[in-house]
Description:
By secondary structure, this protein is of the alpha+beta class.
Amino acid sequence: MLYSCKLKSVCNLPVIYNKKINTAGTSNTDVPLAVPGMYQLDITLRRGQSLAARDRGGTSDPYVKFKIGGKEVFRSKIIHKSLNPVWEEKACLLVEHLKEPLYIKVFDYDFGLQDDFMGSAFLDLTQLELNRPTDVTVTLKDPRYPDHDLGIILLSVVLTPKEGEHRDVSSIHSFLHWRIYEIKTMLMRKSWKRSSKFQTQSLRLSDVHRKPHLWRGIVSITLIEGRDLKAMDSNGLSDPYVKFRLGHQKYKSKIMPKTLNPQWREQFDFHLYEERGGIIDITAWDRDAGKRDDFIGRCQIDLSALSREQTHKLVLQLEEGEGHLVLLVTLTASATVSISDLSINSLEDPKEREEILKRYSPLRIFHNLKDVGFLQVKVIRAEGLMAADVTGKSDPFCVVELNNDRLLTHTVYKNLNPEWNKVFTFNIKDIHSVLEVTVYDEDRDRSADFLGKVAIPLLSIQNGEQKAYVLKNKQLTGPTKGVIYLEIDVIFNAVKASLRTLIPKEQKYIEEENRLSKQLLLRNFIRMKRCVMVLVNAAYYINSCFDWDSPARSLAAFVLFLFVVWNFELYMIPMVLLLLLTWNYFLIISGKDNRQRDTVVEDMLEDEEEEDDKDDKDSEKKGFINKIYAIQEVCISVQNILDEVASFGERIKNTFNWTIPFLSWLAIVALCAFTVILYFIPLRYIVLVWGINKFTKKLRSPYAIDNNELLDFLSRVPSDVQVVQYQELKPDPSHSPCKRKKNNLG
């Protein structure tokens, strides 16, 4: 490791000792403690045996921390999916006081979540013999459950006194070198701690390179099907799904019920960090509600054996099980994702700006449809952040996410008004994506503390304008303390963006698992009830026309009915929808905006936030919900179905309400095209073309992924909940942006 190598070079700093130490082979128990830097401790972390399983698959992703005197001095790499990991890592430490033991802690790495504790142990340094390699076996224990067997860790240690050639150097000189060592160690610790906590940025940022890419390629995977999988249920079938893992990146397929030959047809992308490739671990599982999922089998893909810029069809035999998986794998060149200092701005360079504009010009419609635009985010500074430490300060850093692309700034220590001054650039795959900027507080021994977050739809961005965004809570429903100053620029090809709207959205391969919440369940029920009531009220209105409750209205409806039925043509259906969109548009531009702020949804979101706080506080008292796992699964399914139904209705409404003008204009273009087609082309020809396309689609493209263009379009329209979450809060007048020179790139 880079840390260990650098540390070894520091370990040879000249030091001075007040007393002479016993030579090799003697115990150091009675040796008096001397000045700092008296001993050098060389540790080789060998391996672990029979460690505790912390993941649902019956494995763990263990790594080890070493601490001395309450300070973390070393952290190992992560070994994925193993209960018997082999590290073979070396660390060189300077020990100030031998009476302070070496504290060993083992954790299970969980990306985006708090790492699980797997056990700890103490190594008494006073019992080690000097200058003699010693193999040590430490037994891991949990102080809360001392009877639990958590496995063992095997180490090799050598304790060496630092004396000899430096005895004539003054103690002041020694102390200065010790302080230099502490400073260097602290800086290195900050460096590797960031990279180990967020593995997506495993390469350190370089100020030398203009555009340091954080990954070297994209791995596109299409999960086609499974063949002759192992039957895991009593009915002779299975409910299979597949998990993929490339380093820290994870993806889980959908569940295919009651089949041994599932057809998934799912596509997703992984980032490739290693130039020579990597190993994709694949496991197949059978979903069992109410108990642990059954393991079907596993296989691997060695990316270093695959040629680039070519699609490979792979039929993989499942090991430790039965059956095969059929995949399509494509390795492509890296996307333009980078971090640089604020002084380096690609859009300020006329040549680079011209190249970017040329890349996304309307003339290049069918060139690389996956790349529809360019995003540049300047993360400038934050003000008035929440104090997360007992000292009244925080160690803030900022994470910028666009779908599955995730970059972060450096940490500014002990500061509530940090300045990052970093420029992030992304390739835009979907113009309807939402940019998420989250501020965290770095913690030494725990996962980072949340300080605030903003979500900004790309289509709502005003180019070249430095804005102060009020930080929100985790649910994006209300403000938290602090503001963040961003300047964002978006350049995209509108035609390519429109075409991408009609294909499935990119799924996040790391998402929070659905949780059961009484308030969330109630909110989704109320949202669905409101959608249903719209249909019920429409039915009552039509029925009142038949009942002649209002003679004038019934007479008008009767005349309209006769006129429409007598003159009805199929093209009138899209034409009516087109007229509705046009009517709402003129209402908006005339100032009679019929889009009402949904205070009901806002109130429900605020109540949900309060309920979440209560649930966090009372999690131990209300833990019985998690114990009734089968009931919880059913409730979560009902909760999700209610959300999907309500969101579907809200998205239709928001399309006609011009909530997202880009999508409403796209709907107008599509409706105009459908109206013209239905007017000039007989229906039988349209149905004939549709049927021929459907019947021959599998013959023309056997591995094509089925999709519904209308549902893909509606998936880009935000629901009422998302509209509230994406609303920009007004900043406090006390946080006024400094008058700085801005580049208006409009």
